[in-house]
């Protein structure tokens, strides 16, 4: 409890336009509740998967993508401690009244001092489809594991599909594998969300899809930092050409 309260108090000091403001916490009947600013448009997943919600055009999606990247860069590099979110996914991205993205739900977040080694945990937390493969062996949540989850989030927003989908009762399909296969065939744009039609800049979409693959690389050292991700998204740095290596992500999902 003391550790939880200490981390809540620390996270409550975070101030960034793309992070939902934590107002406090409440313990009631054995439950621990975190209290945040109200976000009138709810979570992003509603707009991606609920067909009764308005469809997001590409400009809105791209601004959301950049907003989340900006918030993560602040968590990783812009505060006095390193904050690892550990649960980046569309349902944890909240939208304010102007459809600006705010990263929320810090219930699994971990903090550690710079120049120190993240602590090992015996419990791997997060959501299947966003969990980096090295977490199972090292047990250490790092900025690189957040980048991996952000890669899945990028593909989710661009493709309008969840990172892990069941196509048959005994078959589970990884979104990143599907995008990777299409990229190898020279047809990466075929993975874009059909609801977008052809109403998007192809070069920008291709960059986002390839960046999603790069962030989802199974080798942590091959993933870019969030600072470099922001440079790619802002057009300040060109995305490097991806090499045709035999990546396979399916093994990160336990049977």
Automatic annotation (TrEMBL):
<dbReference type="InterPro" id="IPR050528">
    <property type="entry name" value="L-type_Lectin-RKs"/>
</dbReference>
<keyword id="KW-0418">Kinase</keyword>
<dbReference type="GO" id="GO:0051707">
    <property type="term" value="P:response to other organism"/>
</dbReference>
<dbReference type="InterPro" id="IPR008271">
    <property type="entry name" value="Ser/Thr_kinase_AS"/>
</dbReference>
<keyword id="KW-0675">Receptor</keyword>
<protein>
    <submittedName>
        <fullName>L-type lectin-domain containing receptor kinase IV.1-like isoform X1</fullName>
    </submittedName>
</protein>
<feature type="domain" description="Protein kinase">
    <location>
        <begin position="1"/>
        <end position="239"/>
    </location>
</feature>
<keyword id="KW-0547">Nucleotide-binding</keyword>
<dbReference type="Pfam" id="PF07714">
    <property type="entry name" value="PK_Tyr_Ser-Thr"/>
</dbReference>
<dbReference type="InterPro" id="IPR011009">
    <property type="entry name" value="Kinase-like_dom_sf"/>
</dbReference>
<dbReference type="GO" id="GO:0004672">
    <property type="term" value="F:protein kinase activity"/>
</dbReference>
<dbReference type="InterPro" id="IPR000719">
    <property type="entry name" value="Prot_kinase_dom"/>
</dbReference>
<keyword id="KW-0808">Transferase</keyword>
<dbReference type="InterPro" id="IPR001245">
    <property type="entry name" value="Ser-Thr/Tyr_kinase_cat_dom"/>
</dbReference>
<dbReference type="GO" id="GO:0005524">
    <property type="term" value="F:ATP binding"/>
</dbReference>
<keyword id="KW-0067">ATP-binding</keyword>
